[in-house]
Amino acid sequence: VPLFPRAFFWLVSLLLASLIWFISVHLSDREDARLQYGLLIFGAAVSVLLQEAFRFAYFKLLKKADEGLALISEDGRSPISLRQMAYVSGLSFGIISGVFSVINILADSIGPGVVGIHGDSPYYFITSAFLTMALVLLHTFWGVIFFDACERRRYWRLGLVVATHLLTSGLTFLNPWYEASLVPIFIITFLMGLWAFITAGGSFRNILKCLSCK
């Protein structure tokens, strides 16, 4: 299943969030540092909400496509399951999000100077790599949980996905205090991964079968 159409939805959400933040900055006092920092946090929150809104819109689009595929198939079933669509959708969101994060990091690595030479943390690149990895995994897990919650109409799960996404985004503002941001983010990643595994039908017995190659 191609990733690019799914990544396009994430790009559109990022574009809209960027426009909202850009307009907010230009309509405000650009000399007020505290206000600009608050607008940056506001922009990050709007970006998260738009990403989840577009994830929901994409779920609705896939449901329509799934119904159409089921109608034209010989056995009356869609050739692609909801779990497969959820996984691919979440993975595409994660990959495109990671690509944008890596681009920013590579832009900073061009120079001038050396990371940490002015007292900044020398662990900027390694922690950014771990953070990007966590975000790619989180988007994959959120996609699985989100689609299942929409299908079963369990809206409290949707709320938890949005809340953990907002929390993860907010924790990044603690950088360069990396211990306070990376540790909670990886705890969230582990918990979301466990939840997504159970949601997808995984169990301890399946793990044992996989390890024993049965």
UniProtKB/TrEMBL annotation:
Q: Which Pfam families match?
A: Aph-1
Q: How does it sit in the membrane?
A: Multi-pass membrane protein
What InterPro entries does the entry give?
Aph-1
Name the residues that span the membrane. Answer: 7-23, 35-54, 85-103, 123-146, 158-178, 184-204
GO biological process: one example = protein processing
Gene Ontology cellular-component annotations: gamma-secretase complex
- Please tell me whether the keyword Membrane is annotated for this protein: yes
Q: Where's it found, cell-wise?
A: Membrane
What protein does this entry describe? Gamma-secretase subunit APH-1
Origin organism is Dryobates pubescens (Downy woodpecker)
